[in-house]
Q: What sequence folds into this?
């Protein structure tokens, strides 16, 4: 099976003052894959995703997306080129309606807004009846769904989801993972950052384990799951 | 009663000019995150442009085009300065306030040294127009009608743009959360420039209407109007568009009432007393900051 590299991060580092939040990290995501990024609070997952998108500037290293060097490019240009980030903390435009949020997600393909809306409603039927509701009044779970749906409106080539399960009830978490799995079957490539290692490892094909800004382990999720260190540190097992 | 009606009409037409300026001012505050104190000064400069064009032609369309074009072009030309400042200092509205105050001084100086030898300019009397309606003390001039109805039309168009169009949606998105906007691929710089352009358009139209309403302009007018605009914006709650609508009108009416019932020269003092009292009671403004 020939793998086409979609995203390739080569040794990037990000510091906030004296804090090295991401330290010489390299990861790769291939077309069609689900890659998971696991690590405890403060491991640097969010910072890594933000650096890939150019929100935080990397001090060193390189980011290649679809073969193009996107290091240092402005965030909106990187996003436009097909990188869709679903940011941490179910962020929506809370003063605007659900429909407006979705339309904003489809900013770059105004002609396909209607057809994209239809396909988004297939994954998120709840949103169809909420189009005129102010997004800030949605429940946390609904806001997370809107946040994912908004990213889909741009038809991204790669979806980067930052802890989409954060703060949600277990039932909603399962629902969201089901939707993401479904999207992957439809052809979306996914890079997922998660603290919930068990869920993430069951979900992904390959994974990276981050600790204090560094990647300490990587490999197929099956292997990671049976790795004693991972089991001990992240899966709460005594083995 | 007649005085009241007369001053109410005066107040509403003056107030609708404040409203337009407050909207343009707030739009740049919300989208570009700057306090553009020199904005009213630019509008006065555009009144000078109207005046200059009027010496050659009395074609209304040409005057409007010249006014709008000058206001848009200069306002957009200023944008890179604020962008550079933001790069150096981060988006700090205090920095933009100080810098735009010096721009305002510069514009005032240009008008008082280079334009019409520093003398006030007067617009042709038929430009202001005769009264189109009068009964006793109440007189409604053509200039007032232009200001009032033109003002209403411009406000409606502005809110239509903001709440019913794709570009308006993007302007609102950036105003609510510019980081999230960039994450979903909305071009930040381009949209910020658009906000300067829209404010310039509003300003250019306002300049024409102000010229018809006041019939004259002087280099000091920018400061005078500028303080009112900032006052009305703060009264409403900075960045609050709908509040700005109410407070702009309120300020215009209060000022006219003061002129009608008290010694006219106290109208400014009264406006600022009003502001002081409201700020003491509601520091975040009558309508809250950015709603
Ligand atoms: N804006 C910032 N300023 C200073 N330090 C920051 C900033 N953002 C993140 N950090 C620091 O960088 C480190 C990595 O943070 P990051 O948010 O990337 O972790 P994370 O893996 O996403 O954690 P979580 O699972 O809790 O979301 C932390 O030590 C954090 O305190
Ligand atoms: Mg995080």
A:
């Amino acid at each position: 099976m020939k793998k086409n590299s979609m995203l390739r991060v080569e040794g990037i580092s990000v510091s906030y003052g004296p804090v090295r939040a991401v330290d010489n990290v390299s990861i790769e995501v291939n077309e069609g894959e689900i890659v998971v990024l696991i690590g405890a609070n403060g491991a640097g997952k969010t910072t890594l995703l933000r650096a890939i998108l150019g929100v935080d500037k990397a001090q060193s290293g390189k980011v290649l997306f679809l073969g193009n060097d996107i290091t240092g490019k402005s965030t909106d240009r990187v996003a436009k080129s097909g990188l869709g980030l679903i940011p941490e903390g179910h962020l929506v435009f809370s003063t605007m309606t659900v429909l407006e949020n979705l339309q904003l997600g489809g900013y770059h393909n105004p002609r396909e807004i209607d057809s994209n809306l239809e396909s988004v409603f297939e994954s998120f039927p709840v949103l169809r009846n909420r189009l005129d509701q102010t997004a800030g009044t949605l429940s946390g779970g609904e806001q997370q769904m809107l946040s994912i749906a908004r990213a889909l409106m741009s038809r991204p080539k790669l979806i980067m989801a930052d802890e989409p399960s954060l703060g949600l009830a277990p039932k909603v978490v399962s629902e969201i993972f089901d939707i993401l799995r479904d999207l992957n079957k439809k052809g979306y490539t996914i890079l997922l950052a998660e603290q919930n290692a068990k869920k993430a490892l069951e979900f992904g094909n390959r994974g990276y384990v981050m600790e204090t800004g560094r990647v300490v382990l990587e490999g197929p999720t099956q292997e990671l799951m049976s790795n004693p260190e991972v089991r001990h540190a992240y899966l709460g097992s005594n083995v | 009663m007649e005085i009241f009606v007369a001053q109410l009409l005066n107040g509403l037409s003056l107030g609708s000019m404040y409203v337009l300026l407050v909207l343009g001012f707030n739009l740049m505050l919300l989208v570009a995150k700057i306090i553009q104190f020199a904005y009213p000064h630019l509008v006065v400069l555009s009144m000078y442009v109207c005046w200059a064009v009027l010496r050659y032609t009395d074609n209304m369309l040409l005057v409007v085009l010249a006014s709008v074009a000058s206001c848009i072009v200069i306002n957009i030309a200023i944008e890179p300065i604020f962008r550079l400042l933001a790069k150096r200092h981060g988006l700090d509205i205090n920095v933009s306030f100080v810098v735009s105050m010096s721009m305002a001084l510069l514009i005032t100086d240009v008008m008082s040294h280079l334009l019409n030898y520093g003398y006030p300019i007067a617009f042709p009397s038929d430009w202001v127009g005769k009264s189109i309606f009068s009964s006793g003390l109440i007189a409604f001039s053509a200039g007032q009608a232009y200001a009032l109805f033109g003002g209403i039309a411009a406000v409606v168009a502005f809110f239509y743009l903001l709440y019913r169009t794709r570009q308006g949606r993007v302007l609102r998105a950036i105003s609510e959360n510019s980081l999230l906007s960039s994450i979903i691929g909305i071009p930040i710089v381009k949209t910020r420039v658009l906000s300067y352009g829209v404010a310039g358009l509003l300003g250019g139209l306002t300049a024409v209407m102000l010229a018809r309403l006041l019939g004259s302009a002087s280099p000091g007018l920018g400061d005078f109007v500028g303080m009112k605009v900032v006052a009305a914006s703060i009264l409403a709650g900075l960045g609050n568009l709908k509040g700005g609508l109410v407070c702009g009108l309120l300020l215009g009416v209060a000022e006219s009432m003061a002129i009608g019932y008290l010694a006219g020269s106290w109208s400014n003092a009264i406006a600022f007393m009003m502001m002081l009292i409201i700020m003491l009671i509601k520091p975040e403004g009558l309508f809250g900051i950015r709603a």
